[in-house]
Write a structure and sequence with these properties.
5-stranded antiparallel β-sheet, homotetramer, alpha+beta, 3 helices
């Protein structure tokens, strides 16, 4: 079972097409990634203390269905691959049993001071890797 | 004639009600304030060099009509009052002859280093004041 | 005790000043208003069935402090005044004991069909009014 | 030469990392796609009259560099492939000679009435196809 974060769709998330504005699914996914990291002990304070920062390098996302106002959605975050300074997370948005979007998000760790690539903290790498092996 | 900035309404600005999401008018207004400041010579670089930063302290906004997708709107920015560390700008959003929103936005200058109130650069105060007197 | 809704601040909510982008507090407040209405039985479906829609007519908001990334905030929604086709909600954003923003938001009920003012459902008016009297 | 649309980066586009929030590049790209369509005669009114609506089905985006507050960026929109009910647009964001993001965006035409796939208007397909052949 991959990590999942429940979210509510508010009017701010929709557009004049009457559905969620497709760009906003990336926000939903980032919230879930953030909560995954927090659940592993890597909230903002820990990450700041390590002088590291994560930037998104690559996103591949497919839109299969549409969430609507007031929907309760379930956003997953499942590490697929972890290297020294990068990791890929698979993320899906579900409404009940319906898959609405399916994405791979690649994040890189960079130094907060100069934005150059830097290895992520060892225990973060270990924990993310452990999530892969558990499956 | 007050300063005005033309903007286009895109799908990102709308909501499921089929009209512009009311919160976004504040973004339109900030764009116009930013362009007013740039037109006076106070783009980002100048402001950063002065070690100052502007924060919004108070907004009063009335919604009278609704902009829609693809509308071309005209957003005004007209200084109403300028003090040492604060200024109030009146801002309106128009679509042709129709007034859609009418707001007063109060901004304060704070030091970039510690966020404490600080007097704005003298030439900025003078230029904003000159705009008031011209009317 | 007024209704309150807890929310987390994500990176999407911040700006280059390092704090929450002031416009986004209005989104936080709308989420809390929506949850207040849902708690009273007026979720999207009920409101749609009544052929009514709510639009914001007037906002007065004061910014007193700044929320930051990862903050857990508490957003209140407290009806102040209820008339046939309008109501005013006082909304505050708190981080622990610190008041960050304080606003009055006036909403009007309009017909979904033609956007003209229309009385809100009687039981909604009664429930909102009951919240005022309870205090 | 592909179609390009100049845009300014405002504070609303940035995040606490001090750079443009990566999700917002998709908004920049949609603005450029919209302007490309408008330049071909397919503004909102024309598209509405045809009973058609476009939805994004797939995005692949690489982040190579970061735009910052006040940057003037150039967003391209270049059709790569056009079929009956779908087209793929390559979109890049440039700051002077620096490529910041590079994406392929696949859009599908659906009927406004029921959201089912529908062929796009013939003249739209022809014009988008002509742009490919011109290169």
């Amino acid at each position: 079972m991959s990590f999942a974060h429940e979210q509510r769709v508010y009017i701010e998330d929709t557009d004049a097409g009457g559905i969620v504005y497709y760009v906003n699914y990336l926000k939903f996914m980032e919230r879930a990634r953030t909560e995954l990291m927090r659940s592993l002990g890597f909230g903002k304070n820990r990450i700041f203390n390590d002088g590291v920062m994560f930037v998104v390098r690559d996103v591949q996302i497919k839109y299969l269905g549409s969430a609507m106002l007031d929907d309760l959605i379930r956003v997953t975050a499942e590490p697929l691959e972890v290297r020294g300074a990068r990791f890929i997370v698979r993320q899906q948005v579900w409404r009940l049993g319906e898959l609405l979007t399916d994405a791979n998000v690649e994040c890189a760790s960079v130094a907060r001071s100069n934005q150059l690539p830097i290895r992520m903290p060892a225990d973060m790498r270990e924990q993310l890797t452990a999530l892969i092996n558990k499956e």
